[in-house]
Design a protein that fits this description.
Catalytic activity: guanosine(27) in tRNA(Tyr) + 2 S-adenosyl-L-methionine = N(2)-dimethylguanosine(27) in tRNA(Tyr) + 2 S-adenosyl-L-homocysteine + 2 H(+)
Strand order of the largest sheet: 13-12-14-11-10-15-16-18-17
GO molecular function: tRNA (guanine) methyltransferase activity; tRNA binding; zinc ion binding
Keywords: Isopeptide bond, Metal-binding, Methyltransferase, Nucleus, Phosphoprotein, RNA-binding, S-adenosyl-L-methionine, Transferase, tRNA processing, tRNA-binding, Ubl conjugation, Zinc, Zinc-finger
Radius of gyration: 32 Å
Strand content: 15-25%
Family: Belongs to the class I-like SAM-binding methyltransferase superfamily. Trm1 family.
Number of helices: 26
Shape: globular
Number of strands: 28
Distance between the termini: 86 Å
Protein name: tRNA (guanine(27)-N(2))-dimethyltransferase
């Protein structure tokens, strides 16, 4: 069980073999008994942790000198330095080297010293000069608790302090042998992950378990596209561990031809190993300096995945795909032009943006720099982020003479996901570009409205806002946000088919979200939701064409490349466009933001019913758990909320309408029901007696 042989054989070409028993006996002679017993109990308590420690972690300087096997008559290399860095020397010189360059700069923790190590455990990323890759080994420390390798001493001290703050003080010794990578299973797919896989700054192969929902949504979108036409060529431009492309190939089989790309050599190695772990054949195509290298089976079958090592922009410029997914670390705006350059007609581009700091208005100057968009923090900031990304996608597609239709837009805590269908042609590009507008946002009441189309300058832009905050309050009360996407964020037919795919493949985490998205797209409540579409909706209208579903006849299926049939279906779609559900309202209101002080607002589901009874379209939204998407103006929204709120001192009484002055003007508020009018007619005296209470609600009076 050689501790140093495997590593040292590569670095110093010296055949040094130190048995594990020698290390243990050396430690027993110098360690204190109580500490040794506690350490052995820690190691015996968990058999998952390796028993050997790295040779750079020692208790005493004598132990480190014993590893070097100091002899005066022979030259010996340093056990912690490669031969090209420190040549073999005699014992007295090697002793000074170990003491001054390794032991004095060590980090102490519970009696152990973590000495600085120069072995090739942590290679620095190579610098490419011409056709040569110059790589150097970086000095680093090995953590005694976890498997991290830290470059700087100050960072190592901070790293250990974080372990102590978390209560992680048990020593888990790390072996010199290459550690076995952890295997993570997700959706019947096994992948190996590197240490620190959840920290992008510390690993080359990033894997985030919290993005499982994101991967499931993308899989459902790809499965819907694979049902329309097969086989399709799909690209995971930033593979990392390759888990997303492996899930595509493993479940969709012959319907897809998967290409996993990554520009990092370690990630490509991990992707190949994960392909073999899932019993997939690898077709490796690496282009470096104009040289093509193909490794593996060249046969195209259901169990073959193509792995490429290129820059994402390069591979998207060179090849055409039907489905492209972009998931860089941060913003994806640098890859949009390449993505839309060669994507096929009626193909799909999905992108995940994790730069939530700028998109969620925490770093507004970064949003202006990356997206060319002016934003402020609002109650609907997540939907604002989705519309910012779609506007950037629309501009990139228009530069390639392509238009888009948004199929799905999701903004959650960690990411913003946008899925669009690509439509070729300058006319569709112009139509999509016209949907990019500025937004007028009132900073007092948070009312908002998209600026009217046209290039003419208005004398008073405040007149476009439904509120009267500018008239009642001096100064500038509104800001101009954008430019933003002003069109729809969802396609109901596509979402319904995504839900069917999620049920078919048992994607439990995606199903509740997809149901919420379908209700949000139709602007209906969950009670009115049905998984099965009515008979007249078997032909889902998307992008002006009919898409075949399970109950659709073959006549309604669009064959790619058949322009005449496509034009005929476009004409039929225009005639029946009015029969389909109208576009959902833009943005939403948060009930907590607009609740009245001193009043207990009704339950959210009951409040949705009250708005629906008042004649407005209403639904919940995935952007905000307490958000309400409705076409009611903010003044009417507050009116209904106030009407069905109860005073704080009357918590025990049943929820019911609060009669306010102006209820007899319900005809002006909305197409209200007859019951509301009868209640208003029955209580005219109460309305007069409570005239003073109306003065405390200027928004209510202004609305009336």
């Amino acid at each position: 069980d050689g501790v140093v042989a495997s590593e040292k054989g590569k670095s110093s070409n010296l055949d040094v073999k130190i048995p594990k028993s020698d290390l243990e006996t050396g430690e027993k002679g110098t360690e204190e008994e109580p500490t040794r017993e506690s350490d052995s109990n820690v190691l015996d308590a968990s058999s998952d942790y390796p028993r050997d420690k790295h040779i750079s972690i020692q208790r005493h300087l004598a132990d480190l000198e014993k590893l070097a096997d100091l002899r005066e008559d022979k030259k010996k290399p340093c056990p912690l330095c490669p031969e090209e860095k420190f040549k073999a020397c005699y014992g007295h010189k090697l002793r000074r080297h170990l003491q001054n360059l390794h032991w004095k700069v060590s980090v102490e923790f519970k009696g152990y010293r973590m000495c600085i190590c120069h072995l090739p455990c942590r290679p620095v990323k190579p610098n490419v000069v011409g056709d040569q890759a110059l790589s150097k080994m970086g000095a680093h420390y090995h953590c005694i608790i976890c498997s991290a390798t830290i470059a700087r001493r100050t960072d190592m001290i901070g790293h250990m302090n974080r372990h102590v703050n978390k209560g992680e003080t048990e020593s888990r010794f790390i072996t010199v042998r290459a550690p076995t990578n952890e295997v993570v299973k997700e959706s019947a797919t096994d992948v190996q992950v590197l240490p620190n896989h959840s920290t992008p700054q510390k690993t080359d192969s990033y894997f985030n378990p919290r993005m499982k929902l994101n991967r499931q949504l993308i899989f459902c979108a790809l499965a819907v596209l694979a049902a329309e036409r097969k086989p399709i060529e799909c690209l995971d431009a930033f593979g990392a561990t390759g888990i997303m492309g492996l899930q595509w190939a493993k479940h969709l089989r012959s319907s897809v031809k998967v290409t996993i790309n990554d520009c990092n050599e370690k990630s490509v190695t991990i992707i190949k190993e994960n392909c073999h772990l899932n019993k997939m054949k690898v077709k490796l195509n690496i282009k470096e300096g104009g040289n093509d290298g193909t490794v593996g089976d060249g046969e195209d079958n259901a169990d073959t995945i193509e792995v490429t090592k290129m820059d994402a922009n390069v591979i998207m410029h060179l090849r055409s795909f039907d489905f492209i997914h972009l998931d860089p670390f941060g913003s994806s705006v640098n890859y949009l032009d390449s993505a839309f350059r060669n994507v096929r007609n009626l193909g799909i581009v999905s992108l995940t943006s994790t730069d939530t700091g700028s998109l969620y208005a925490k770093a507004q100057h970064v949003a202006l720099r990356h997206y060319g968009c002016n934003i402020v923090r609002t109650e609907y900031y997540r939907e604002l982020a989705a519309r910012i990304v779609i506007a950037a996608v629309t501009r990139a597609a228009a530069r390639c003479n392509k238009g888009i239709e948004v199929l799905l837009a999701v903004a959650l805590e960690h990411f913003v996901l946008v899925v669009v269908r690509v439509l070729r042609g300058p006319s569709t590009a112009d139509n999509s570009a016209k949907k990019i507008r500025h937004l007028i946002h009132c900073q007092w009441c948070e009312e908002r409205i998209f600026q009217k189309e046209g290039n003419m300058v208005e004398e008073n832009p405040y007149q476009q806002l439904p509120c009267d905050c500018h008239g009642s309050m001096p100064g500038r009360t509104a800001v101009l946000l954008g430019p933003l996407w002003s069109g729809s964020l969802f396609n109901t037919g596509f979402l319904r088919r995504m839900l069917l795919e999620a049920v078919q493949y048992s994607l439990d985490e995606a199903q509740p979200l997809l149901k919420t998205l379908v209700c949000e797209a139709e602007c209906t409540t969950l009670k009115q939701f049905s998984t099965h579409s009515p008979g007249d909706e078997n032909k889902q209208e998307e992008c002006g064409v009919y898409i075949k579903t399970s109950n659709t006849s073959a006549e309604s299926y669009v064959v790619p490349g058949k322009r005449k049939g496509e034009e005929a279906l476009r004409g039929a779609a225009k005639r029946q466009k009015a029969e389909h559900s109208t576009e959902h309202p833009a943005f939403y209101y948060n009930v907590h933001r607009h609740s009245i002080r001193g009043m207990n607002m009704p339950k959210l589901n009951k409040f949705l019913n009250y708005l629906s009874e008042a004649g407005y379209r209403v639904s919940r939204t995935h952007f905000d758990p307490m958000g309400v998407r409705t076409d009611a103006p903010l003044a009417q929204f507050k009116t209904v909320l106030l009407k069905y709120s109860t005073p704080t001192y009357a918590v025990g009484q049943a929820e019911g309408p609060v009669h306010l002055p102006g209820d007899d003007l319900g005809e002006e508020e909305a197409p209200g029901t007859a019951e509301t009018k009868e209640e208003d007619a029955e209580c005219p005296e109460d309305d007069k007696s409570r005239g003073a209470s109306a003065e405390s609600h200027p928004a209510r009076c202004a609305a009336n």
